[in-house]
Each structure stands twice: as C-alpha cells, then as structure tokens.
Amino acid sequence: MHIATKRDWPDLKPMPASYEDMKIELHFNAAHMRNLRRGFVPSDQDEKWFLYFEDNILHIHRSWTGIKMYEVVFDDDGDGGVARRVRINLGPDYGGTRDDAWNTLLDVLSYYASDEAHQPHESSFVSALKEATQPGYLGSPSVIMELIAPYFWRILCKELPKYCSGLDALPDYEPASFSDVLSANERIASVLSGADESFHGLEAWRTEQGLGKAVIRTLALDPDWYADENLHCILSEGLAGLSTAIAKIIADWANDSSPHNLNALFEFVAVLREFTASVILGTHTLYFPDVTLSDFTWANRSRFMQRDEEAGNCLVPEENPEDFDEVPVEESQQSSFEKLLRELEALDAELEEDDALEDEEEVLQPGPPVHPRRDDNGNPVKLAHPSTPTALWTWQDPESIAIVIPDGPMPSELAAIPFDSWVDAPTDHAGWQRLAEQHPVEEPDLNLPKGKKAAAGVVIVEDDGRVWAVAPSNAYGGYQATFPKGTYSPGTSLQAAAIREAYEEAGLRVQLTRFLVDVPRSTSYTRYYLARRISGHPGDMGWESQAVMLIPIDRLPEILTHKNDAPIIKAVQAMLS
C-alpha cells in the first residue's frame, strides 16, 4: 500500500495568501482516517485530485495544475479523527463561490475516505481500447463493412437478372426479392439505431443529430420532412434511397453503348459501398468531401474510379432484356469478382492505414491529455478532461455546434474564407497596436472604476450567424466555455488587446467591427467588441484553450453558462437580432 507524499506529484503550488480559514467539525472513523492518511496519487486523466497527509494536515491539490485548493487540519479522536479547521483557496485560480468550494470539499473528503477511491481500476483509455476490441464494435470499419455487405449484394442479385444471364456461375449468387432487400435494410437500421445489444460503440455519434443528419445530407433526404423522425426511420429511408440509386446505376450500365464490363460495374458499386460505410463511421467528409448520393451515377463514374475500366470478358445483354440466352461466365470474370469481394472485405485495413487526422475524425475521440503548446513559463499543460471534436460536417451546418481541438482537422474554408494559419502574426505589443490602428472602430471613453484592471474581449460572428467561443484549458476560472478575453498591456489599446486575444486563444485573425458592451468583473472591467473572422486557423489555439467552438447564437446561453458571460450574450443577441 503506497502512502502518498508531496514528492509524488510535480509542480505543486503553495496555498495562496488569499485563502479563507474556517473552523469545522467533521468526524471520521478509523477506516476512513486510514484511507485519508494514505492520500491519493492519480493514475488517470479523469482523476482530478492529488492528496497527501503530513503533520496531521491533509493537503488537497488539483492534479492537472498542481494548485492547492484545501488544507484540512485533523485532531485524533479515539480510533478515528476529526477535522477541526480548513483553509480554502478562494483566489483567482478558483472562480467559484464559497459555498461551491465547501460542497466540493465535502465531496472530496467523502470519496477519498471511502474504500472505493483506493480500489484498483483501469483508465478510461484502457476501457475505450477494450471496447474497441470487442466483437460488434461499430467504430470498426470491418464491422460496418460486414454489416452492410449483404444489403448491397442482395440489391445486385435482385437487379442484375433483369439485364444479364449466366449469373448462377458467380460465387454466392442466389436470386433475391424485394422482401430480401427490405430485410437487409431493416437489419442495418436496427443495429445502428441501437436495437441490437450485441453491437456497441460510437453511441454519441449514432443519434438523430449526428449520424441522422449525416444520412439526411449525404443520401439526399428531405431535411424538412425528416427533421422530427427517429434515427431508425432516417436510416431505413436513406438505405432505401441507396437501393434506388444502385438499381438506376445497373440500368444505365446495361443501356450503355460501350462494352458491358461486369467487373467495372462491381467496382463502381464497391465505391458506393465504401462511401456508405464512411457516412456511417462519420469519415465521409475526409474520404468523400462534398459528395452526396446524387453524385453516384453511371455517367459520372470516372470521378470516383482510380484506375481505367478494363474492357472485355463481359456479359452482353440481348436485344430484348426480358429474353436472355444463357451466356457462360468465363473463369477470368469469376476471379475478377472474387478479387473485388476481397477488396471490399479489406476496406477496413485501407481505412486504418490512413493518417492520424482521419483516425481522429473517425472515432471522435477526446484529444491528448497534454496540450501541444507549453504555457508562458515553458511548462507542459496537462488536460484533465480533454475536449472531444465534432465531425467535420458540423462546420458546414449553421444549426450545429462545431468543435475543434488543438491541431485538429478542419474543413479548408467556411463561407469562402479559408482556414489558414496566421504565419506572420505580430510577436510584440507594437505589432498588435499597428494592426489595430489599420481598422479602428469608434467607441466611448472607458470609465475605469477605481481598483479595477482594464481588459478586452471579442465576440466573433460568422456569416452563418454562429459565434466563436473557446473552452479554457481545465475549465480555468470556472468557465466551461467563454469568449476570448484578456488584460491589455501598457502601450497598446484595448482594441489591440481584443485582436491579440482572438488569435492567442482561438487561433483566429479578426477585424473589429464595432464596440459591444462594457462588463464589470470582480477584479477587472472588460470592454467587448464585435468582430469578423478574416483568416487564421482555430486549431492553432494557444495553451490557454483546449478547444475552439462555433455555436449558434440562440444556443449561447446553453453552452456559455458562467454568470459573467450572461451580459455579453444578452448584448450580442440584442444587437444581432
């Protein structure tokens, strides 16, 4: 049994001078005191507290920042102990109320005094890895390909006999009816909508707002008609549209004046199957950017094929498509078809070999536990709860919240404005000031209250009506999400500070458009400006942000929940309404 000491955790901060000292009386039995004296050393990013017991004082630190939040002084009480006094950190590192701090302390003491806190457990990463290796994991390309393969095959077996004979010679061919196709459709829709408990994974994606919207958009369903439908209905209708599209492709192939190469048809349908799998996995914006089902026509096949179609060895339809003679299928055709099937079953291997950005989009995993950029002192920034990015399609949907993590993938542009890194951003105060002076905005004089520090913030509005926000690293200051803001530096203006903060916290280059509102805080007085994005890349966010978000304006109160942001939200909604 390991007893934690302060040497077990790096960069521990002392209790600041602004702590509050409180007399308390909390009794713990002998078993609970043994657990508290053990302390606690985190082994996983989900474990937020580091504790050690020294000289009858329990020291409680935030694990990812090392900030000391509590010192609890104990006296012996028979076999147990009693907490007599606590020092609580209520400085600027906290950001909550005294009652919040007290309630959190009670939760921490209750949990780490229990046996549960000290039981061996596996990390969230290990849990996720185990889930991914279990049978039926719907984040696996091979599982998805196996799930949808019978549907495509039954459509082919149903439609091809209308135009070709000799199909009995094909491996695994058997006549298929409309009922067979419908049964395969129902199987896929049921599994992906959660009706089959033997399948699991990507639950957050397999919703009406995630996979449902992707199916509506890519498989060309009417968004208004299906807006209120459940996921099973959306999937079933989308798959029905696929069946219609494949039937049309086969008919156009049969009526094509060029030689009828059955292998070329199979290869094109294989690409459509690959497209369908990518929609289900959420990777279609990477593998098939800006592609929908309507793009898959026989006349348009050259857009998708990576190699020229080979002529010869084909089944040729007779003059009357309802009266075919038996045409033998040559051995070379059988081997070509078998080769195609092997290629289809190996698609998961091809997907796994793609780069890390595609993997990240595919499984929508949280970002790494350490920020790729160091803090102002050169120290690494550990992230206790890394943010999870959204699928790339959310950036193009004005009704969706879009999220990117540091160095995460982004579409190439939005509203015709590219997402490009700002390689020549200013590096000193004078540079930011010169930039601000190029496009100054009119503003009232700042009446700074006595004892307050001046600060500047910026509300960046996209043309689609959404607003940019940042997720401070480790919810600093109690903010899960907020607008970019920071104190201004001597020798620069508040407008320069606002432009600088937009870049440092969100990676964006902005142009201010007007004054918005002045907001008093406990120690600062912050002036906010409206702005528009003119370049930059949100994936370039600095260490102070663990995610950058684009949020529909009517959902700002839902996401930016800190009370300090309420007047800014009210002002921007009023101005833009």
Automatic annotation (TrEMBL):
Residues 354-363 have a biased composition (Acidic residues). It comes from the Bacteria. InterPro entries: NUDIX_hydrolase-like_dom_sf, NUDIX_hydrolase_dom. Residues 354-379 are annotated as: Disordered. Residues 451-574 form the Nudix hydrolase domain. GO terms for molecular function: catalytic activity. This is NUDIX domain protein.
